[in-house]
Amino acid sequence: MLLFKLIYSNGYYLPIGAHVFPAEKYRLIHDRLLASGVAEATDFLEPEPATDQDILLVHTPEYVHKLRTGTLSPLEEMELEIPYSPELVEAFWLAAGGSILAARQALTDRVSINIGGGFHHAFPDHGEGFCMIHDVAVAIRRMQRDGRIRTAMTVDCDVHHGNGTAAIFAGTRTRSEPLPSVSTSPLNREQPTANTMRRTHEGDVFTISLHQHNNYPAVKPPSSIDVDLPDGVGDDDYLAWLDNALSSGLRQFEPDLLCYIAGADPYREDQLGGLSLTMEGLKKRDELVFRVARARDIPVMVTFAGGYARNVEDTVAIQCIPTREGHHHRNITCTSQIPKPFAQTRIVAGSFGPRCRRYAGSVVELPDAPMPYRAGMRSFENAVARFATDYSAQDDNSRGQRHIVS
Asked: Is residue 77's pLDDT more than 80?
């Protein structure tokens, strides 16, 4: 039995006929989780469709009316890239209801996964790229309307830029230098215009998008942080950029809810992607997101977004990973183990800044110290305890912002 709930309905199936979008994947994920023993039938909750009032928290009345009455223009239908039908509208309303339920459950259980949703290309007044309704945005706005949260962060790891998310929660961004932890990568030298992190933020929702630069959409509205990756990025560089984006975002912003859009399409065998992540790399990606959220005690709602592997079973396998990782991390809250003097400590994981490097063990970095403190322990708890002992001997001048990394 899982320690959190999975949100699923047979109604998630998108009636779009033969299509590169594997509409059957939702049922296959559900069935695989049950058959493998990862989940039991009681771990699943079935959502109700979102109401029109919920959808109108994000989308314009004119667009909602067109969807309800089947009066989209030919151009609007073409932008969707999936065939319109009233049944399709019902499926998207149900997906939005699933994300609302997942957000609500995450606030209770600290983790919840909607086996569906993640339709991040939908704009307030139109749909694009297989996305009719932006279910994640609807869920965030519903939680805010109900007073359940004040702030949220979206972490979009689909291979395609979250253009709808960026537009809905609009801010501005300015170009920044490549992050130092991966600045020596040959990918940077070969493609100097890509692999940059662009950032700035305003508003109550902080948006992070980690995506392939040379891919859909052609126009990429600004997120709070955009990481534009060059073609062919593999596991190590990808994880380093994700770690840096999360670290930077959480220095600037304190979300009440983290909405993780866990696209399967960074996979190296994806038909619509051009990155080179392995299954193991995608597992580490999910683990990293959960670990960072756990360390700050931030509830996580997961949606699955894209995935177009040549073999649909690969997409299914990838999108079963968050359930395993969420279960592993659900019952640990590291912030509660940090002594009071370290209440503002920032905890991150993976590949670190210019003075840290990856190694087998934990790292604790004092920014004012000449070198990172290497705890040499695999256990996060042991690293914290040892850091606490050493920290007590530090001069007050070195007690700035601390980084504890597991």
From this structure: yes
